[in-house]
Each structure stands twice: as structure tokens, then as C-alpha cells.
Amino acid sequence: MIPAGDWVCYKTVFSADSPVHIGWHRLGLIERTRYYIPARAIWGTLIAALAPSRFPGSGVPAMYEKTTSEFAQCMRFTCFFAAAGLDAELWRPKYDSPHGLMYGSLSAADFESRFVFSQTSAALDPSTFTALDGALHESEYLCFTNGNKHTGALHFIGYLIFKESLAADLAKALSTVSIGAERNYGWGRLQLRYFQKTTEPLFGEFNLTVGPINAPSMRASSGAFLPAHLLHRPGKTNLAGGLELLGGRDWAPKVGSGGSLGELALCWAPGSKVQDKEATFEIGERGIWNAL
Question: Residue 36: phi, psi to the nearest 5?
């Protein structure tokens, strides 16, 4: 059953209580991390957090399938970007000529030097106590550190847009969640620090329109920087930035988690700059935007 009520928007802030690795791509032995949390990762985390309470008697995988279907009708997500705290500078990507890709006021190199670290690990062959073939890898992660000492919690800020009757369930389910890779080793632990209804422009640039029926949409003027992946449609929207082939793995019957390769979509990357005088977007069910 689709939850009742109007669509509402809640500004949401998590603090990272451990290193966070959001899978991006592999470079030799290095597993690269994204420098933000994509909307799809938020989508998966919320399904995992809410499914047991939304459909407690359904079992696995039915409760996840039902929650996925329900979310398509009543939940939308933005990417979440790093910051030092709720009122601190937001380090979200921006393609801004002549400086290239920036993260807030930081260059990509400055952001990496401050917040991106790595750890080397390998699976061992118990018979020889040597690394298994192909098991040696180095994983990047996001964290506030000074040498080997943590100097504070990295925060992630974004927006959840949903039917209002879900607010209490969401606040409870999101109190502590895990996201990204290496969760079995304690990475990716997030604590909910702020969860408040808002009518402010999203990320200060996108005016949100919500109502009782239609899916949320937003409008931005020239010079705004996308805070999400936008489906590339030639001639539809004039943007300056980067393109990325976006995909993912889904649940597959008889195979399980990750058994189905989802459709690939060519998208404008977060940080791409709106060149049109004005543009309107709709948020898709897994966080990919579409130009209207």
C-alpha cells in the first residue's frame, strides 16, 4: 500500500563514525572511492533499513522487493556530499572554468590530500599463509585524519523527499545505518545527526515543487551545478561538465544480491553546470534526474 500524504522534503545530515568507501572504479590494485555518496547508494541503504519494519512477515527476498516497489511511488533521494558539519562548507563537485573540477572551494587535489586515504589488505591462503592470487588490493576511503589520528567526524549532507506519513519510520530506521564497501570490517557506519522538514532550495540552487500526487520536480537557473546524475539526452539540456556511464547490480531470483546487471545509462556527472537560462528536472526513483 502506498503511504498517504503529500510529498515533503527533509534536509538530512549523517556523521561518519568510521572510514567510508563508496565504490567507483579500479586503478591497478587500487579500489577508488567516490568523493560523495550517490543517490543509488542512499536508495539501497534505505531499502535495507526500512524493509524489515515495512514488511516484517514477508521474509527475504520478498520484503526487499516490496519495499523497492513501494519506494518507486513514495521516495526520492539526492546525492549526499561531504562537509565538516551542518553549517560548514559543502564540498560538492563543481565544474567551473577555468579552475576545472572543484569540491566547494577546494581543488580536486586539495580535497584528496585532506580527506582521501587508503588501506592495503589481502586475503590469505591458510595452507601457506601467503596472499591468494589476485587478492592483494588497496582501498581508498573518506575520513578526517591527521596522520593516524582522527580529528573529527566527516559529515554527509543531502535531502530525502518522501510521502509525509513515512517521517517517523525513516527517523527511526536511519538512526544508525551502514553504507558502501568493507562494512564487515566496520567501515561505512553513519549516525543520523539532523533530520528536519525544509522548504529551502536544494543545495541553495534548486527550487523544489512537491504536492499530493505528482513526483517532485525542481527548477534551476543558469549557473547552477547539478547535485546528481542527469540522464544524457542530446539537445534537451545545455550543460558543461563530465559524462559518466552509470550502472549497478540488482537482486536476481535464484542468484541473490548483485546477480542482475542493471541497465547502463549515460549521464551528466554531479557538478556539471547548467548553461540554459532556466531548466526543470524530475528526480527518478533511484536518484537519476531527467530534464523536463
Answer: -155, 170
